[in-house]
Amino acid sequence: MALYEHVFLARQDASPQQVETLTEQFKGVIEAHGGKIEKTEYWGVKSVAYRIKKNRKAHFTLLNIDAPAAALAEVERQESINEDVLRFLTVRVDELEAGPSAMLRKRDDDDRGDRPDRGDRGSRGPRPDRGDRGPRRPREDAGTDEGAL
């Protein structure tokens, strides 16, 4: 069987419970056709790049699937019929990610509070010494340098 990453977007009006019901429905179709779901991730409600069927946001869900192509064809057919599903994308991969996806890792990175302040230079230390440049020239003399443009 082939390995797939499948993401579908559900309407923003749908509740998280309705999205979970949709996910369970699609899992059932895949398992009925001899496939199995390796991992399911709910990414939450996110903004979409452009309006899709009058929606500016959508519920994002990722499914890592190990199934025959016929199972994916049936899931995609049912998603195209369902009014709650705005878009879906299936990508065949050589191997599935074991840990959390990049979207969940990104959310974890955003939540961490151990980053230094912008003014704190951390272990890099102060800027290297540029040497004494001397006082600035008056404005009228600034353009008289030979190398100046």
Q: Explain this structure to me?
A:
It is built from 3 helices and 4 strands, in the order βαββαβα. By secondary structure, it is an alpha+beta fold. It has a domain at 2-95: Ribosomal protein S6/Translation elongation factor EF1B (Alpha-Beta Plaits), CATH 3.30.70. The chain has a 4-stranded antiparallel beta sheet with strand order 2-3-1-4, with helices on one face. A hairpin with a 2-residue loop joins strand 2 (36-52) and strand 3 (55-67). The N and C termini lie far apart (66 Å). The mean pLDDT is 83.
Short synopsis of the structure:
27% of the residues lie in helices and 33% in strands. It has 3 helices and 4 strands; from the N terminus they run βαββαβα. A hairpin with a 2-residue loop joins β2 (36-52) and β3.
What is the name of the CATH topology of the domain at 2-95?
Alpha-Beta Plaits
Arithmetic mean of pLDDT: 83
Helix-strand makeup class: alpha+beta
Mind summarizing the main beta sheet? 4 strands, antiparallel
- Write down the Rg: 26 Å
Strand composition percent? 25-35%
| Strand/helix succession | EHEEHEH
CA distance, first residue to last residue:
66 Å
Bulk shape: elongated
CATH superfamily of the domain at 2-95: Ribosomal protein S6/Translation elongation factor EF1B
Uncertain spans, ≥5 residues at pLDDT below 50? none
Report the helical percentage.
25-40%
- In CATH, the architecture of the domain at 2-95 is 2-Layer Sandwich
Count of beta strands: 4
By DSSP (H or I, 4+ residues per run), the number of helices equals: 3
